[in-house]
Amino acid sequence: LDLTQWDLAERVGCSREAIQKIEAGTRRPSKQIAELLIACLEIPPEERPAFVRWARLGPEAAPPDLPLASAPPLSTAAASVAPVASTPPSNLPAPLTSLIGRDEEVEAVRRSLLRDDVRLLTLVGPPGIGKTRLGIAVAARLSVHFRDGVYFVALDTVNDTHLVIAAIGKSLGLKPSEKQPVAEAVAVYLRDKQLLLVLDNFEQVLDAGPEVLQLLSACPGLKALVTSREPLHAYGERRFQVPPLELPDRKRLPDLDVLAGLASVILFLQRAQARKPDLALTPANAGTIAAICLHLDGLPLAIELAAARIEDLAPEQILAGLGDRLKLLKGDLRYLPPRQQTLRGAIDWSYHLLTIGERTLFRRLGVFVGGCSLAAVQAVCNANHDLPFEPQAGMAALSSKSLLYRETGVEGEPRWGMLESIREYARERLGGSGEATEIHRLHAAYYTELAEAAEPKLRGAEQLAWLNRLENEHENLRVALEWSLRDRASDAQESVRLTGALHPFWKRRAHWSEGRDWLKRALAQSADSQVTQERVKALNAAVLLAADQADTGSAWRLAQENLALSRELGDAGSIAHSLNSLGFLLWKKKDFAAARASCERALGLCRELGDRLTVADSLHNLSHIAMNQGDYEAAQLYCGEAATIYRELEDEIGLDDALGDLGLVAYLRDDHAAARPYLEESLARFRRAASVPGVVSALNRLGDLARCQGDYAQAEMLYTECVAMYRDSGDKDEFPSLLHNLAYAVLHRGDCVQAIGLFKEGLAIQHEMGNQAGIAECLAGIASVVIAQGKAQQGAQLLSVAEALREASSTVWWPADRIEYEHSLALLHQSLSEAALAAAWVEGRGRPWGEVVADVLQISAQHFSRSPAVKCASND
Questions:
Q1: Are 294 and 319 in contact (CB under 8 A)?
Q2: For the segment 311-370, what is each residue's pLDDT rounded down to a tens digit?
Q3: Sheet harboring 195-200: ordered strands across?
Q4: 295 and 326 Cβ atoms separated by less than 8 Å
Q5: Using an 8 Å Cβ cutoff, are 358 and 370 in contact?
Q6: Cβ distance 562 to 536 under 8 Å?
Q7: Phi, psi of 733 (to 5 degrees)
Q8: Burial 834-851 (b: 16+ CB within 10 A, else e)
Q9: What share of the chain is helix, strand, coil (3-state, %, to 5)?
Q10: DSSP alpha helices (H): ranges in 276-382?
């Protein structure tokens, strides 16, 4: 059918990764997904029931008359164990509930244990992951392959490693004589047996590993399936890491049918319905139930305990209570072992098996959120070198015990994380240790230094790596900020330093509202402190973020305070930055003369200081003000001088920006022939420097150039590369504008459905950022689609709101967007009478823009159809 994985995933309503796993045979689809695949893959009606069975259960579930590829053969070391004719003996516990979401894991472990070269397999995982339940299910499936039976050996009450073999003998029903040692009796009994032992909860008797290996060596037909929070580290051991249950996408809630097929959601619903039969998954509670499963990391025990609270708590109350999950998640199943009755009990079991040094490291790690690097662990958890081992060895030990997981960070560096339930337990232990204040102080100091080290890197060739590094540490940065703002022992300047350093990150990754909130709190905390460069810097950051969100009132007040404090401080560099920010605000207020004068005073101060880099940056600011004034000659002079300085300083990134600005000036002057060489040279330089933001900026301007010239196919190709690169980079600052530009190119191809989707995606991000100018751009684009569909009155109202927002944010249309805007107006004049157009325009202006945005985001793409390619006169 010529469908890509992306195409199929979009049609089915699941992730591309899910389709990849289904194709690779590492995952079976839910019934709902299988049924959706039937329609997408055009399966004939007579084959559909067999298709669903095959998709859900594998080739053995299909009838003989349905041609299916056979399962891949086992390796040359595959087991020759054949099913036995009679029912073998077994003491396996009979579970009282169904096993959910473990089909793939059961099959993978079963296949592994059937191999001749696998004698010892350990199911490893954190507390509550369901190792015992999985082990029982695997053993039940394997029972027909072991002539002499499958036996379950519970070791949770065995504390003496020398009693493990005795526990095995007891499970086998052996009664050795007083004259024969237990180990010998068990070995003699098993010597000629074909039998599987399930050794459950082995983590507390790990020292008995050699005895188990000796038993396996003496009994060639014996195999062992072990469940443990830590592997045996034994020769010949095969390990299987038990994963959490499948979870919903954190970024995008799937459709109800897809959500209902996810194992974590199924488990919650089934266990909750046992307590409250009328509970059902509905559009109203789907988001809440998905969030519960996500907060609980897909841990089966935690999900079951949460579901058990449904008798006295609504799903929303359960979700709210997960802030203190260790208190909330306790069951009333008194006949279960204590470790299975509460989440705290499950983790307690692992904690008390740690050494004293491991416990110390574990609880200190509770300060981190979202993972940590080895450098952070050394600086925070071993600052006084009081751990009895190197941090790396300690992290490896905790990881081996399933209390940590290891992942790959930026540029391949190792990184460790905790499941949230385990982290909360560690944090609780830290709080009771008496060292929480000191650990939090060290944590805040480390992340403040990291943010300050990152700040200058965010304008260099390493900017993408550093942006990603800060994004990885975003939760830790939040924890550091929260502690420095709340704890009385912290220095008031700590939060000011950290917020001032984070401004470029917040801007580039579109955390504008969050950044403003942190800055507001930090500045309020330090209001009575001595005036410092750090406070002035933070004030300047607050000015720029407020201006980005078109909150000119707040920005103006902060800018005045910032300038006054800079002068009180007597620091010329701070005064220059304040004047530049003031000039930016004056430009936003369309007072171009005053804006230019303020920035020129800043430039003069920078020249006096001899800070050539800041001079070049000031010239860069002046060039943009001049562009908006329409003084392109002055803008070109400013850009040219900035380019010269950057070249002399060998500042490649600055030079690339300046060349791009020279191309931009020519573009704004409609001198496309002059613009292209600058933009192409800038693009080539950015590509050599591997600067993703620079490459995207140059591609975007070249796309604008193509759009102005009516070459929409070229524009779409350039914009598509931009969007792909920005999606990969994680930046949001310019991303919605790129989506908006691509949407126009797609619209001119006549694909209104894709165009409206792109415009809406960009609008949602601009709305989240609070960027009024960006919202205006997207609303104007959506108006173009609506008008192209023949809905002139609705389009006129949207265009009116877009124009009002543009005026309020003191921005002008870019040349390519101006052409689109004028084209939309021309179509409206053709479709509506002057009176009707005026009435629609007034009606649009009368609606609150927030209400308009909310309505537009609810528009379904299904309401649009493909149209003939939209014709638009070029500006050449």
A1: no
A2: 889 999 999 888 777 777 765 555 456 555 678 888 888 898 899 999 999 999 999 999
A3: 150-154, 195-200, 222-228, 120-124, 237-241
A4: no
A5: no
A6: yes
A7: -50, -55
A8: eeebeebbeebeeeebee
A9: 65, 5, 30
A10: 286-295, 300-307, 315-321, 325-328, 338-341, 343-351, 356-364, 374-381
- Give one DSSP letter per residue of 509-564, joined into a string: TT-HHHHHHHHHHHHHHTTTSPP-HHHHHHHHHHHHHHHHTT-HHHHHHHHHHHHH
Q: What pLDDT, in 10s, does the model give residues 483-534?
A: 999 875 556 688 999 999 999 999 878 788 999 999 999 999 888 778 889 9
Q: Is 417 helix (H, G, I), strand (E, B) or coil?
A: strand
Spatial distance between the Cα atoms of 29 and 260, rounded to a whole number of angstroms: 12
**652-665 as b/e, with b when 16 or more CB fall inside 10 Å?**
bbbbbbbbbbbbbb
Question: How far is 616 from 606, CA to CA, in rounded Å?
Answer: 9
pLDDT on residue 7: 67
- CA nearest 291: which of 322, 331, 324? 322
The pTM of the full predicted model, rounded to 2 decimals, is 0.69
Of 251, 460, 438, residue with least CA distance to 363:
438
pLDDT digits (tens, 9 = 90+) for 711-735: 999 999 999 998 888 776 656 667 8
Taking the alpha carbons at both ends of the chain, their separation in whole angstroms is 42
How far apart are the C-alpha atoms of 608 and 602, rounded to whole Å? 10
Q: How far apart are CA 744 and CA 783, in angstroms?
A: 11
Place of tokens 């929070």: 229
CA gap 396, 411 in Å, rounded: 20
Structure tokens at 360: 């110390």
376, 415 in Cβ contact below 8 A? no
Residue 152 phi, psi (nearest 5): -100, 130
154's tokens: 């519970």
